[in-house]
Structures are given as structure tokens and as C-alpha cells.
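Subject: complex prediction, re-run

Hi both,

The earlier run crashed halfway through, so I resubmitted it with identical inputs.
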Amino acid sequence: MRLDRYLVPMPDSYHMTPDEFRQRGAEMVEWIARYMERVESYPVMSTVKPGEVRSQLAPHPPLHGEAWDDVMSDVDDVIMAGITHWQSPGFYAFFNGNSSGPSILGEMLAAGLGTQGMSWVTSPAATELETLMMDWMAEMLDLPPKFSSHSTGGGVIQDTASTSTLVATLLAREKATDYASNRSGLEPGLAAYTSAQAHSSVEKAIRLAGIGSDNLRLVAVDDTFAMRPADLAQAMEADVSAGLTPALVVATVGTTSTLGMDPIRQIGEVAATHNAWLHVDAAWAGTAAICPEFRHLHDGLELANSYLFNPHKWMFTNVDASAFYVADRAGLKRMMSVSAEYLRSAESESGEVIDYRDWQISLGRRFRALKLWFVIRHYGIEGIQHHVRRHVALAQDLAERVRRHPDLELAAPADLNLVCFRHVDGDAASEAILERVNSSGTAYLTHTKLDDRYVVRVNVGQTHTEQRHIDQLWELITG
Ligand code: PLP
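This time it finished cleanly. Structure:
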């Protein structure tokens, strides 16, 4: 590179001034509002080919700052083609990652303040609002009192369910080894248990925590795709006989393939006989507990050592925000707290404040509590209940149509808002439905396999999905 490139006269400052920000910020809000209005008109799935987005963008970073209009035209002309529209009411894939106006405004304010709340002292409001939000949500879901900060436990916002489960796995490992790995490295001989339908994040956590995939038992499920507690008991006993220590059981409330509901109470009783940690993953379905009529899904939760649900899936809060609760917050601190002179403060030493850096893997942390605060204050409990119930009712409507259709059959119970079905003629016919729907551009479905058979999944949980979208989807399904 020629050095004289750097000898051009330079301005005093390259920053965006508050006035420019005011103008560009207002334009951005307008852009997002127009996107919200028009999102339904985009094909839900992006159709770009691998490499297509990158090939249209500058291969090297610019030496000189560029005009903002040029940046935004690349957003319009290149980036938008590569967007899969998770905020489209025709999005029924995976589990939704829904969002809402108040959540976006919360993100904006968090970025505007740019705080980093690793310790209470680095932004007291970030810590105290987070503790309050975790208590609010525990109250909204009617979680057992031990998960409240007023008791021995408490909650923390992790980035994702995968991280929440990893932290739970690490806590289980420490409990099983009496914190030995903190001191002298891993001890072999631990075993963990989850159902054959559990999310892949469980196995990832088991690997990362050094327990090892070979020591993870995938317990069989019944015909509702729920873990069989008797099989769990057998697997744990077999491991004890073989000299292993059962350290962790992960139960799922709402499995990813079918929304299977593991019976927490029976599983918890089995786990307790071996003094194993019980972690409950309710990443999607936990939000349903905001409605009293769905709280039975949490029956037995008082037996759990930790619990997670993802407001960033079904609670109108954009990714990322995973609510992770523990019954014993002292264990978290014991496992994670590493003192360094530069992190010390009188408030931390006093023991009167929470330093969330001791409740998570990373040190730095975003001010995620703001968007939860905005969402909960905007909707109120009744607003969230209204939309959760509406999603469930729409899914029930779809499930009923499937039940009545001579060529389709439900492949799993559809008790909440996931409808799994297949064509009676077999896999090719089921796959053809998915392809027809997805190539239409108006909806996006994903699939799973159950008993080795192809199954189409419809998750009804996008913020703006209404009856007319379900009617439209049904027409596509039935061709
Ligand atoms: N647990 C369950 C039951 C899930 O369905 C998912 C994702 O869909 C996860 C965990 C992982 O979620 P995250 O992306 O927040 O890690």
C-alpha cells in the first residue's frame, strides 16, 4: 500500500454529530416503521444463493468514510434480498423469534446509553432493573418462590437458552464434584440425562462442560414424545452400578420437534433419589405460563434447581434474551466469581449488590433488561396473555382442520401452538406440501422426523399472525 494515501488532509473529527444522528435516526425509525407495514409483502424466505450477498459488497473496508445514503442503499439493494423475514406473519418455521415495537425501542435505548453492566457499580440501574425484571417474570409465570431474588435464588438474563443450559450444566458438574473442577480440573465419571427429543443445546453443553457426549443418556419418550420417568430411573441406576455419578437431568417443557412436555414432577422425584441437578428447559413454551390455564405445564417445577425460558422466542422481545433462574444463587457465585483487582469495588465487597458478571460466562453484558421492561409495561400482563391465547387458538384451529382432512394426520399432540402433521400417502407427499408452501413466498414452514417419518411443523407464534394468515396457509397446505 502506498504511504502517501495517508497524507491527505484529515478532518478534525470523523464522528457522526448529534444533529446528523438526529436526522439519520429519524430516517431509520421511519425505515423500520415502513418495514413493519410492508413485511408481509416480502417473500418470507430469502432466495439468495450462497455467496450472493457478499459478492455484491465491497471486498475491502473503505479508507475514507462513506456517505450515509450509500450505506442505506446497500441495505435496500443487497442486504434486504438476503433477509429471511422472521417478523413476517407468514413465519411458522423453527420456533419463532418474535419482536415488537417496545422491544425495538428498548434495544435502541440500550445502544444509545451504551452501558456495560458487568458489575453493579458499572451501571447500578442495569443491574437493579434486571433483578426486578427477573422477579417480575417469575411472578408473571408463577414460578416457585425459590427462584425469586427475595429468596435463596434469582434470575439473570443470558444471551440464549444454549448458554443458560451450559451454565446449568456447569453448576451441576460443580455440585456433583463438590466444586473440585474449580480447583483441580475435571473429574471423570459424571453422567447426564435428557430425553431423546431434547434440544441439541443439551448435548453441546455436556460436551463443553467436559462431561462428554458418551456420558449423556438419551432417555426414551412415550407416544406424546415426553420423557419416560421409569426409563430415566433405570438409566440412572445402571450408571450408579457402573460406578458413575448421575450429575444432571435436563427436562424439557416444549421440545423443539413436537412441543413434547416432560413430566417435571416425576422426573424431579427420580433425579432427587440420586441427588442430581434438575434443569428445566422451557425455551419456547415457558411463556405460556403467563396464562393460568397453561401453568400445569410447570407442575413439579419446585423440584428443579434451575429453569429457563426465552422471552426472545414468544414474549415479543427480540433476540437475545434468555431468562435463566437458579434456586441457589450462592452456587453461581462460588463457581464463577474470580477476583481481579481492577474489578473490585466497595459495593461488591459489601455483599449488598449483585454483580451479574458472576452469573454468566462472559464479563461484559448488554442492558437487555430495558427491552423487557418496555415490553412488559407496554403490553401489561393482560396484553401478553391476550396474544399468547390468540396464538394458541389459531394453532388449535389449524390442528382441527388437519384432524378433519382425509389426507392429513397429526403426527404429535397439538396441545399448544405447534402443529405437526404428515400426509397419509407418506414422506414424499408430506415433503411436497412443505415445498409448495415455502416456494409460495407467503409462508415458511420447517420439518422434523418422528419415528423416521417426515413431518411438517407449523409454529404459530409470530407477533402479527392472524386468522387470515392461517386461512391463507391452509389453502397452500391443501393445494
Ligand atoms: N431449547 C429448546 C427447547 C429450543 O427449542 C431451542 C431453540 O429453538 C433452544 C433450547 C436453543 O435456543 P437458543 O437459540 O436461545 O440457544
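The mean pLDDT is 95.

- K.
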